[in-house]
Specification:
Blueprint lengths: L6 E7 L4 H11 L5 E8 L5 H8 L4 E3 L8 H14 L4 E4 L8 H7 L3 E5 L11 H7 L4 E8 L9 E8 L6 H25 L3 E4 L2 E4 L2 E2 L4 E3 L12
Parallel strand pairs: 1-2, 1-4, 2-3, 4-5, 7-11
Antiparallel strand pairs: 5-6, 6-7, 8-9, 9-10
Helix pairs in contact: 1-6, 3-4
């Protein structure tokens, strides 16, 4: 990756593409230092594909149901990604568990956004689990994709206070609007600028090992960051 040139970005989606739209908007404002060269969905006809097409971005659908095994799907998906030679691969609501071989193929270039304050609540139903645990804080995390599900090094988190009146739906909406749509473009920009790297399974930002994730807003002190 050449920090003097916009990074080549591939985005993987499975649904509405709200985080994809945040990346598109940041790129159009010249805030991303990356050009989205391809959007791939594993589900046909989803709204995220329409968002990409409206922005003039190439799209491709690779329906996982057309392949007999997870390995077969991941091989075709990986070949499609490799064909456009990306610097960064961003998983934005991509609802597939990737095989170890696929992850090794792109490791160090893949980021994922997860709707919890990792390491809390890996997997699904994160908002429900936060409410059931009576958590005071909830949010979202950006992490490098590794072979451990939702277990790669976390680089950036944003949080909101859980309100007494929150339902699963309201909490999900507030996390998306107040956290996710802000932190993903920021983390992708770090990678595009060459500031964020994965070395020996450890995240480094500006040549400093990240002992704890950065907290959004970035000017805010991390002293009050939630305890995992």
């Amino acid at each position: 990756m050449n920090p003097s040139q916009p990074a080549r970005l591939v985005v993987l989606i499975s649904g509405t593409g709200r985080n994809l739209q945040a990346l598109i908007d940041a790129a159009e404002r010249d805030d991303l230092h990356a050009r989205i060269v391809l959007v791939i969905s594993n589900r046909p006809g989803v709204q995220g594909l329409a968002r990409a097409e409206a922005a003039g971005i190439a799209t491709q659908t690779i329906d996982h149901r057309d392949y007999p095994t997870r390995e077969a799907f991941d091989q075709v998906l990986g070949d499609a990604i490799a064909a456009v030679e990306p610097d960064i691969v961003a998983l934005a609501g991509f609802m597939r568990i990737l095989t170890a071989e696929f992850i090794r193929r792109f490791e160090g270039r893949m980021l994922n956004i997860h709707p919890s304050l990792l390491p809390k609540y890996r997997g699904l139903q994160t908002h429900r689990r936060a409410l059931e645990a009576a958590d005071h804080w909830h949010g979202a995390s950006i992490h490098f994709v590794t072979e451990e599900l939702d277990g790669g090094p976390v680089v950036l988190q944003g949080r909101i206070a859980v309100e007494p009146t929150d339902t699963e739906e309201t909490l999900a909406r507030r996390v998306m609007e107040n956290v996710e749509l802000q932190i993903y473009p920021a983390a992708v920009r770090w990678m595009a600028d060459g500031r964020l790297r994965l070395r020996d399974h450890v995240a480094w930002l500006d040549d400093t090992q990240l002992q704890t994730p950065a907290l959004w807003p970035l000017e805010e002190s991390t002293e009050d960051s939630p305890t995992p």
